[in-house]
Design brief:
Number of strands: 13
CATH topology of the largest domain: TIM Barrel
Radius of gyration: 23 Å
Helix content: 25-40%
Shape: elongated
Oligomer: single chain
CATH architecture of the largest domain: Alpha-Beta Barrel
CATH superfamily of the largest domain: Glycosidases
Largest sheet: 8 strands, parallel, barrel
Structural class: alpha/beta
Strand content: 15-25%
Distance between the termini: 15 Å
Length: about 525
């Protein structure tokens, strides 16, 4: 990690959020120009969709710019405080970046009967009006407002009406292959919630490393965590750090979902507790990137007691209602062995009171009703998955690797990243449909979209953000269900690149090659 990257990730939570809002406002002068230009060009629609990410469902502007000083946005914060405190905090931070201009202090914020994440934002000569179906919708409205204000304290007049297509909009980061700690993960929360993602999936365990404290099984932290793909020292989250991260995310309307990958991808676990392996023999730390070679013992009492301790501890310390228990690439097991074990895992998850998510491989098991399958590969039959989804009353999240795995290279010139699922440029990340990718599965069962970042080739935080940005915005557009307009999206992505770079993030631009 370079010194500038290290400085970036050490920022405190309050400083980081204020800087986020300030950077949005600082770049908005260019954004405002784009708004006005589109409105004054008779051949262009009156829309600011190309300046907001993800693009809203409807944006109708008058072309006028009105004063929006600190007092007016502060008044909006006051109107939000009683029913949307997180949105009020964000509005306070936005107000702190604005001048005390002659703006009217008229502002109103009301909760209406729409969906919990829906919002309407109206800017006129009579002030700011925000209506939302719940606190989350109000928070997203304030993020939109921040993008519409320029450094002089003027805001584009008009009306934005918005709502998400999917209720699950998730980002996954693998901290097992290379460990990225609490500060980096808070940075990711900031980046993702700016784009209205509402779930953070933490891939906490794999063959290379174990990344969460389990007090009753201390060797997981003491031994299993001390490795990564690069031969580094690894690391782990204490339970206190894990809980603090969840609180930080919740204040931004994001839920954290932890993943403990079972029964495969378990070499690191077996380094610490070899008695849970099929042969009981010692294991060595693994620094490669092959998959499918490890598994816990499926039937021994020692193995099941270990798994039970882990799952119960993770469930106890997870604020949200869902845990992820992996289930992918258990290549050493027969279909019958795998299905029997994963059915047992599902019952264990249910006994903790948590809902269950597993990778799509688990469709062969008898999972509890309401469990969620995460679709990731087109190997096999989507129709067979669809039949089991109906039979067992399951949900599905779309994460097709060829569209949504951002550890894939941007293009063939790149050093960072993998390409087993192909390359994913910005257009590929933007231009896909969950329903089309998951043909054979009832669209009504598809509850969301998750973009994934595995970190085999990404030891530094700059490497991570290089892979994420700007493609994360493309995936957000799919997850939010933004109107499809590639040219408008690419223009907005150019604005966003400047914003992210102003905040110190390493961003991919066409023609860049990092690491060569």
């Amino acid at each position: 990690m370079t010194s500038s990257e290290s400085t970036q990730v050490r920022r405190g939570a309050k400083r980081r959020t204020v800087a986020l809002v300030a950077a949005i406002v600082a770049i908005a002068l260019a954004t405002g120009f784009l708004i006005v230009r589109s409105l004054r060009d008779d051949s262009a629609p009156a829309s600011v969709a190309h300046t907001l990410l993800p693009a809203p469902q409807t944006a109708e502007l008058t072309g006028e710019r009105l004063p929006a000083g600190a007092s007016q946005v502060g008044a909006l914060a006051d109107a939000l405080r009683s029913w949307a405190p997180n949105a009020a905090r964000l509005a306070d931070e936005l107000a702190a970046t604005l001048p005390d201009g002659p703006a009217s202090t008229a502002a109103a914020a009301t909760q209406d009967a729409t969906g919990p994440e829906d919002y309407t934002l109206t800017v006129g000569t009579d002030g700011l009006t925000l209506a939302a179906g719940g606190p989350a919708g109000a928070y997203w409205a304030v993020t939109a407002l921040a993008q519409m204000i320029d450094p002089a304290g003027t805001v584009a007049a008009g009306r934005v009406v918005d709502s998400p297509r999917y209720r699950v909009r998730s980002v996954m980061i693998d901290v097992a292959r290379h460990f990225h700690g609490p500060e980096q993960l808070r940075d990711l929360v900031d980046l993702a919630t700016e784009l209205r993602f509402n779930e953070l999936h933490l891939h906490l365990t794999d063959d290379q490393g174990w990344r969460l404290e389990i007090p009753d099984r201390p060797r997981l932290a003491e031994v299993a965590s001390r490795n990564d793909v690069s031969g580094g020292e690894g690391g782990y989250l204490t339970l206190a750090e894990y809980e603090d991260l969840q609180d930080y995310a919740a204040a931004r309307h994001m839920t954290v979902v932890p993943e403990i990958d079972l029964p495969g991808h378990t070499n690191a676990l077996l380094v610490a507790y070899p008695e849970a392996s099929p042969d009981g023999l010692p294991r060595e730390h693994y620094r490669g990137i092959d998959v499918g070679f490890s598994s816990v013992d499926l039937t021994s009492e020692a193995s099941w007691d270990l798994v039970t301790d882990i799952v119960e501890t993770v469930a106890e310390h997870t604020r949200g209602d869902r845990i992820h228990l992996g289930g992918d690439e258990a290549h050493t097991l027969s279909r019958e062995e795998y299905a029997t074990y994963v059915t047992r895992l599902g019952a264990l998850a249910a006994s903790t009171g948590k809902a269950l998510t597993m990778w799509q491989d688990a469709y062969v098991a008898d999972l509890p009703a309401g469990s969620r399958l995460q679709f990731w590969t087109h190997d096999g039959s989507t129709s067979a998955i669809g039949e089991r989804v109906e039979e067992l009353d399951l949900e599905v999240v779309a994460s097709p690797a060829r569209k949504a795995y951002l550890d894939m290279k941007h293009d063939d010139r790149q050093v960072l990243g993998l390409r087993w699922a192909g390359t994913i440029d910005l257009r590929t990340a933007y231009d896909w449909s969950p329903e089309k990718e998951l043909e054979g599965i009832d669209p009504a069962r598809i509850v969301g979209v998750e973009t994934c970042l595995f970190t085999e080739t990404l030891p530094t935080w700059g490497d991570v953000t290089y892979q994420l940005l700007p493609r994360l915005a493309a995936e957000a557009s799919v997850a939010w269900g933004s109107p499809r307009d590639l040219d408008a999206f690419l223009a907005a992505a150019d604005v966003a690149r400047d914003r992210w770079e102003a905040r110190g993030y390493v961003v991919h631009r066409e023609g860049d090659v990092r690491g060569r």
